[in-house]
Prior knowledge:
By secondary structure, this protein is of the alpha/beta class. The protein has 15 helices and twelve strands. The protein has helices spanning 11-26, 40-45, 57-62, 64-72, 75-100, 111-124, 159-187, 246-253, 271-285, 315-318, 331-339, 353-363, 378-390, 392-406, 410-418, and strands at residues 2-6, 30-35, 49-52, 106-109, 128-132, 209-211, 228-230, 259-262, 289-292, 307-310, 324-327, 344-346. It has a seven-stranded parallel β-sheet with strand order 3-2-1-4-5-6-7, sandwiched between helices. The protein has a five-stranded parallel β-sheet with strand order 10-9-8-11-12, sandwiched between helices.
Amino acid sequence: xxxxxxxxxxxxxxxxxxxxxxxxxxxxxxxxxxxxxxxxxxxxxxxxxxxxxxxxxxxxxxxxxxxxxxxxxxxxxxxxxxxxxxxxxxxxxxxxxxxxxxxxxxxxxxxxxxxxxxxxxxxxxxxxxxxxxxxxxxxxxxxxxxxxxxxxxxxxxxxxxxxxxxxxxxxxxxxxxxxxxxxxxxxxxxxxxxxxxxxxxxxxxxxxxxxxxxxxxxxxxxxxxxxxxxxxxxxxxxxxxxxxxxxxxxxxxxxxxxxxxxxxxxxxxxxxxxxxxxxxxxxxxxxxxxxxxxxxxxxxxxxxxxxxxxxxxxxxxxxxxxxxxxxxxxxxxxxxxxxxxxxxxxxxxxxxxxxxxxxxxxxxxxxxxxxxxxxxxxxxxxxxxxxxxxxxxxxxxxxxxxxxxxxxxxxxxxxxxxxxx
Length: 421
């Protein structure tokens, strides 16, 4: 088959889809990944064809207005801002997807693929396979990822309605105007059906839906239809010839396991202040640390000898060597930390899936309750780090969960499912 995967987003958003593409390619399928130019070498390095999705998500996350909305961790402000940004992006992405799907037999995508790729699949008469990094499909077992606080309310009776609220009244309205404009101007299609937009396209279709997380982290809901699959995570490990920086290897060798602290693509309104807060927390807790600067721009000025800062490093190599992981709660970083069997603390910046994963690791007993980025203090972070490093029960549960996740092969399972189309 010729398969086009639509994968906009940041590093943690894109890598799982590239992992899926690599697995499909190794199974004999022709795979094209439509994503941003900064991932072109990653895609090509896995033997996959690359197609351009215009726009720079790194630049978007560095935008001052975006950084301000993230710093406040205000869901409505974040949605309002993204709605404005997507007016231009969605039209361009739909044109890009149309180009990328011309010779495709199947189109695969998650949220970004859904709003830009599904209309293209509709126009071309192609199957669109939804591929989610979070439990997106409605269920009574779990609330929508935007509302993890509802999971225990009224015995869970608000769970399924929260999915309707999250999609019909929040996520889809953020996209609707720009998607309908692009459907008309790029594809000559009528507006997407109300009130569910592109999701209405799937109501009478049973193409497989792939959920790329572990059943040991999010058990498959009993009320999901048979074509909704939980495959396990899609990990993209570094190539066999990858070598870590010698200075990092030496740092790890010459002391006890450090605590990893990194917030991925999340922008800090004041990176110097954020770095000082993290350094103070490590000092109070008496722990060594590895800080990931990432796109967030955390400053490495005047670091003590007990702290090492690096721009990027494969989680699959680093996380097994640390004592605990502190991060923003993105799906990919959460998965990597759980796979490594390490206690987790999530510091959510965006009120979407980051809070969900934060509470999920806490409910599983393998991490601490999340601390919102706008409420994080050095003292709170130090207390959480101390607990994560020293709570033996939490550590044992994390190790056991990691072993279960490592025993899964989510990519292989997804490839098997897609191969039956």
